[in-house]
Amino acid sequence: MSTAPTTTTAGAARPAPVSKSAESAMPATARVPSRIRGERPTGRVPFGRLVHVELRKMLDTRAGRWLLIGIAAIIAVALTIMFFDNGGDHPYGLYLQATTMPMALILPVVGILAVTSEWSQRTALVTFGLEPRRPRVAWAKTVAALLVGVAAFALSLVLAGIAHQSAITFRGIPADWSVEGLVLLGAGAYVLLGMAQGLAFGMLLKNTPAAIVLFFVLPTAWSILGAMVSWLQDAAVWLDLNQTMNPLFEGSLTGEQWAHLGTSVAAWVLAPLAVGIWRLTRAEVK
């Protein structure tokens, strides 16, 4: 039982102490929780965990899964056509092109969605609330996109090898596994640069339709103008990424061609990515 209320010397009433029997009769929600034992976490979120979360945002969503299913379907159709065309008599390099081209063209959309979904679905407040250091989130998205690109390129190598070996075994074609190192470098760079460029456009615009449309329209329009307009042809040699990457697939690059490639990569990938990260760190979260 509780005792009667007591008064202080100033005459103000103070609550009487509660007995153990009355305390035990209180509902569990009304009890004051005891202090949690152990040390409180004071460090920041590990960067590896941020990368893992961004990978899940890219792949473990409905849009991401359907994009991957679409890429797989296109690759399967392309390899099937090559398997029956000309008796499947194609070198490994052509099978590799059939697997890398769909990935390089469509996979960047996954990188775009990984950024723009934060703003279109209003989850940026949660993301930056859990990790207020926005540059770390931006770099985690970049690393996750590049990891997806590396995994996609490795998978394309395996699928091309399986298709070529199947043609050797079942169609009786002669084996031709010869691929120059620069060709492999070009195929891998095509996939990775596409992922980085898609991520950059997503950070720049933070709007899914606008980022996807401009990602496909701007480079294509520039390539067409550079080929048709005479006074733009000299600039296109330096700034048309599709044109500057062609020598990689041919297996030979001169010093001047390396300079052309570096300039176009800086203009279409590095500069948009830098500006996109800057905008992401300063955009208002609603």
Automatic annotation (TrEMBL):
Write out the entry's keywords from A to Z: Membrane, Transmembrane, Transmembrane helix
**Region (Disordered) spans which residues?**
1-40
Where do Low complexity bias regions lie?
1-17
List membrane-spanning regions.
Answer: 66-84, 96-116, 137-162, 182-205, 212-232, 258-280
Top-level taxon of origin: Bacteria
Give the protein's recorded name: ABC transporter permease
